[in-house]
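=== Given protein ===
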Amino acid sequence: MKKLLLTLVLLCVTGLLLGGLTLLYHLPLDTRDRSPQQPLPFSHLQHAGDLQIDCRFCHRHAETGPVAGVPDLDLCLSCHRHIATDKPTIQQLAGYWDRQEPVPWVRLHQLPDHVYFPHHLHLRAQVECSYCHGQVENMAQMQRIASLKMGWCLNCHRQNQASIDCWACHM
């Protein structure tokens, strides 16, 4: 009788554990807005689309580091000290510079701390930015397109014959 009870308890605990892991696998990483309001309106439609500025001009760390990064004010103002200076948005941007404050951009793509995602390796493998970030050149306001859940990443790795070894992405 004790063996039967112990077996049932172990089966229930195992089932709950597997159910919890399955739920975590399928739940989104977060429930944040997929297109949050930013402190300043920045149009990728205008910059990447109309002006055809390459992603890596502004996101300079994409080729060398784990995070593509948000451009600093100095980079923005390298153009906007001379271009569209009469527009209120550019004046707000310059105000951050004058106050020596960073623009408090709302991060759109965020992975858990235990996930290692090196942009530079994906660029080296010729993965287009649009695969994960969508057609940003058509977005007046950025939106998160990819779920960035583990299953989504694994499907991409399988389709592109990239490593699916756990240690490739989990540190």
Summary: The chain is about 45% helix and 0% strand. The first helix runs from residue 2 to 26.
